[in-house]
Amino acid sequence: MEVSEIIQEIKLELRANMNGVVSSQMRGAGMQYHVNFGIELPRLQQIAGEFAPNHEVAQQLWHENVRESKILAGMLMPVDRFYPELCDIWADQIPNAEIAQMTVLNLFERLPYATEKAFEWIAGDNEMLQLCGFLLIGRLLIRGAVFNDRSLEELLDQAHSLQAVPNLHLRKAVQNVLIRLEEK
Fold first, then answer.
1. What is the pTM of this model?
2. In this predicted structure, what is the pLDDT of residue 64?
3. Going from the N-terminus, what domains does the chain have, and what CATH number goes with each?
4. Nearest to 126 by CA among 74, 167, 85
């Protein structure tokens, strides 16, 4: 099946599973998207399961300004074709905390260079990238990651410097990482 045919089939699935009530509730809660079908995560996972990972399909979906397309892009991107440069491009284009969480969960945490990216992002001054970095570190800790003393010191320094930022999502991600570190 051609990439355009796969995209067309995915769009048909999205329209068929649209949930206007959820979409409206999300909009009411301040989650603004150009298009939001209101499809819940389990159904998006089912839709993604109907298609093989495909770099070109994931790229096209990512460039759609549609909530579900961006989430599916992370699910359908093959890790072995998602190079660090492309990872940086996608991370720079993440529009909000929900897409950050979904992309970390569905793609970034599976990358062989995930730890390096996470530490690079938390050291910068872009709050969305910092959010991605702390979300990613949290996922890596859940998966049993252990950091050396130098990395741990850097992580703690960054975490403590960001605990008072106005961005609630970033503050919460930092707090979750600190809690996970205390549990180890």
1. 0.93
2. 93
3. 1-81 (no CATH), 97-184 (1.25.10)
4. 167
